[in-house]
Amino acid sequence: MNQHLQDSIVVIGAGAAGLMAAIRAAESGGDVLLLEKNRRPGVKILMSGGTRCNITQATDAQGIVRAFGKQGRFLHSPLAALSPAQLVALFEAEGVATKREETGKIFPVSDKARDVLDALLRRLHRTVATLAVEEPATAIRRNDAGGFEIVTPRRTLTASRLIVTTGGKSYPGSGTSGDGYDWLAELGGGL
To answer: Is pTM, for the whole model, over 0.70?
Structure first.
């Protein structure tokens, strides 16, 4: 089945980055579809920080950039859009009280990663975004209209914009198999 999504955004990967991207895009008025290949979104969130989910560091945006050295330069734009303090405020507004540990890491007071995931899912469900689980993207290509075709086992989607948040190969058991690298290499630069 082919499905054309007029002036739409497809986000591939419902981990922390994908959930936040879908939330922000939908809150900005976009027609958003979030694809996740696992049965549940946020599998890696539940594993992070020893299942406690370290949300961020108690520093400003420049502190995060400096911690990554030369490679950290790519973080300027994302951190300008959502600073560590704004991220903490977002979770606290969703009912997740936070604490700062001696290491500077910010965790939920409950020490439960599930609280972080539930907060993101609550916020997502308040938007017009649609979450499709157990629907992996199998191919991505540009179309003649300047948008994208996203192929899944269920359908072929056409979208005007695409956000790939599939992660690397760090935890293959959580679904991070590195698929996005090949898709983006095939699409080439200049996305």
So the answer is: yes
